[in-house]
Amino acid sequence: MATLIDRPETTGDGEPDFDLRPPPGARSKLPEVAVGVLVVVVFALAGLWLVTAATDGDAVLALRNPIARGEVVALDDLQVVTVSSDVPIASVAETDAGLMVGRVALVDLPAGALVTPSQFAAIDVLEVGEGQVGLELNAGELPSLRLLPGNTVTVVLTPANSGTVLEDGGAFTAGEVLVEAAVVVEAAPVGIQGRQFVALAMTEEEATAVAVAASQGRVRLVQVARDR
Prior knowledge:
Blueprint: H1 30-55, E1 58-63, E2 78-83, H2 97-100, E3 104-105, E4 120-121, E5 130-137, E6 152-157, E7 177-190, E8 195-203, H3 204-215, E9 219-222
Antiparallel strand pairs: 1-2, 3-4, 5-8, 6-7, 6-9, 7-8
């Protein structure tokens, strides 16, 4: 039986024509493959960067719940977040959570706010004979609107139409120094008119005298240089 064999076409000189070019309408898929590989690589690198950015940071404390001024921080109020920044930011490390529990908020703070040391203060525990008094004073009754905890001030009695009598029968004299050296425990603005709340630490006897004078609106704070 005869077998038919396909042979390549011949050119005009009788030589076989081996034309390896793709048929008309066909084109190479190499560019599409290269673009596909590039897209995959770009997305892989982007994913790796996002994972690295999310994990390569500092574990710090933030508030889980809003806290009002004067409230005590509980462990349930705190959460750990990761913060990455090129510049230093005020924060409290996750490992210092125990130091923040039991402290008092000095300002109103929303949920999600980063915890910073300046926002909180330790609860004051007074010893026998110690006193603390809170004053709400006008701007003119303060030595500065930038009083800070730890500052030392002198409490002076201002003039009045008549002397103010203490419970034990003693009387104040205008210009009298009620407290030579009181320590600022807390200072915060009240409203927008320049008034400030200032808490001062002193002796129990001095705190009583200052409270009586403050009830008459006769207290002024003075700040002077002191020997160190």
